[in-house]
Amino acid sequence: IGLIIAEIQKMQQDLKNKTIEISEGEGAFKIIINAHQEVLEVKIDPAILSPEHREELQKIVLVAFNRATSESKQIFRDEISKITGGMNFPGIPGLL
Hints:
Elements: H1 2-15, E1 19-24, E2 29-34, E3 39-44, H2 54-84
Antiparallel strand pairs: 1-2, 2-3
Helix pairs in contact: 1-2
């Protein structure tokens, strides 16, 4: 188990460099996060920053954040599965 924990710790460091880029609303909103679910960048098209687009922008941001979070969690699960061979190891720090 010690070897698995060391591999997981290395993987966690490597995941900081894996990024997910999600674009919604035909490019009106873009978010870039890493596989640790840390937001690295957000871009909003100025054309959508008007009061009449407020609700549309809110929906776009919500969808983009949820997709980005979901994809980052899947990357994490895929990497853990590679290390553990799909086995579940409860109590190992850092596992989602």
